[in-house]
UniProtKB/TrEMBL annotation:
The modification 4-aspartylphosphate is found at D51. Keywords: DNA-binding, Phosphoprotein. GO terms for molecular function: phosphorelay response regulator activity; transcription cis-regulatory region binding. It comes from Actinomadura rubrisoli. This is Response regulator transcription factor. SUPFAM superfamilies: CheY-like (SSF52172). Residues 124-217 form the OmpR/PhoB-type domain. PANTHER family: REGULATOR OF RPOS (PTHR48111), TRANSCRIPTIONAL REGULATORY PROTEIN CUTR (PTHR48111:SF36). Residues 2-116 form the Response regulatory domain.
Length: 217
């Protein structure tokens, strides 16, 4: 899952991004509304964590523009205002969820995960295929009932493959969903990560390479 965090308080923005990355999510950060719109115009995000009170372009206007463009990401708004009228107004302009500051980080993670499952076709909370089970909430992976210890990137790549439900996923799609905007598009990191992931999942192999196209589980 790829997430954009938009928050003008840099310490908070970076803390949220760090916490989300620890959950094996790919995260980009923008510190104002214009930066958010610029990144959304370049990258495709599953979820946008959007502070409402932003400089340059207000968070409400960012939300309205993305909704008008039918941008596919789900939007969760953050705000210091927790009154009912504020929540209703945020949802009425197109936000999918609303979280008042201060908030528990565990709740933010749960809401981001829930919105991510709704970003495309609905996904079950636990993904299963070919004897592989992945639980995003618990950060657990099993292969035929055996626990598998994965790095954050290996976990993210496996989650993308399982979410595809048997469809082929290209290297470009894996870079888009499992890494952030700072990754070199010409790197061999996908191939290297796939090698270690296959090794950890063990035999018989469950990840197929489709020559010239990508990977399939």
């Amino acid at each position: 899952m790829r997430v954009l965090v938009v928050e003008d308080e840099r310490v908070l923005a970076d803390a949220i991004a760090t916490g989300l990355r620890r959950e094996a999510l790919a995260v980009d950060v923008a510190y104002d509304g214009s930066g958010a719109l610029e990144r959304a115009g370049i990258n495709e995000y599953d979820v946008i964590v959007l502070d409402r009170d932003l400089p340059r372009v207000h968070g409400d206007d960012v939300c309205k523009q993305l909704v008008a463009q039918r941008y596919p990401a789900r939007i969760i708004m953050l705000t210091a205002a927790g009154e009912l009228d504020d929540r209703v107004e945020g949802l009425s302009i197109g936000a999918d969820d609303y979280l008042a500051k201060p908030f528990a980080f565990a709740e933010l993670i749960a809401r981001v995960r829930a919105l991510g499952r709704r970003a495309a076709a609905p996904l079950p909370p636990v993904l299963e295929r070919a004897g592989v089970t992945l639980d995003p909430a618990r950060r657990e992976v099993l292969r035929d009932g055996r626990p598998v210890e994965l790095t954050r990137k290996e976990f993210a790549v496996l989650e993308v493959l399982l979410s595809a439900d048997g469809a082929v996923v290209s290297s470009e799609q894996l870079l888009e969903k499992a890494w952030d905007e700072h990754i070199d598009p010409f790197t061999n990191v996908v191939r290297v990560t796939m090698m270690t992931l296959r090794k950890k999942l063990g035999d018989p192999p469950v990840i197929e390479t489709v020559p010239g196209v990508g990977y399939r589980l």
